[in-house]
Amino acid sequence: MIKFSVFYPNEEGSTFDMDYYVTKHIPLCRQLTGDAMRRAEIDKGLGGAAPGSKPPFVAAVHMYFDSLEAFQASFVPHRMMLADDVPNYTNIRPVLQMAEVL
Amino acid sequence: MIKFSVFYPNEEGSTFDMDYYVTKHIPLCRQLTGDAMRRAEIDKGLGGAAPGSKPPFVAAVHMYFDSLEAFQASFVPHRMMLADDVPNYTNIRPVLQMAEVL
Q: Quick check: ipTM above 0.85?
């Protein structure tokens, strides 16, 4: 199983519309990728290492696929459409990571 | 459900012993927290946004708990013992995040 994660760093002056993200952007990801995306898990950052500290990431999503090939075939063709939607919910430049789930 | 994530940024000159992490450190986390930790998911970074680019994080773990209270009761008392084990597998200073799973 592989996981494509998108992290939104908690930067000074950043904005993030969690409602739009959960009800519009992630459903759009699901719709475009179809069954190839096995699961999507959305994180809402609560805090960091020290009690009361800000979370390093305001939000993140983790999208699971059976293989890199399944990701490339289902997600990559839509990446520009998805990138175009980002300004609708945040001004943060996301950090992207592909990982293998051990 | 809440998720305590530990990220290991992919820094120049960093080392990370994935075998030790998977077979020693995470099992120690499981043992110390007991049933309170519902699940632990380990990521091995494969790549970043651009094809062939390095992953932002060498590795990460996501530990799931029913509540912040369950985390605080089961994990926090052992955090120094767990922190003491970190130099056994990496020289990276980890980034910690507490998140709500939506």
A: yes
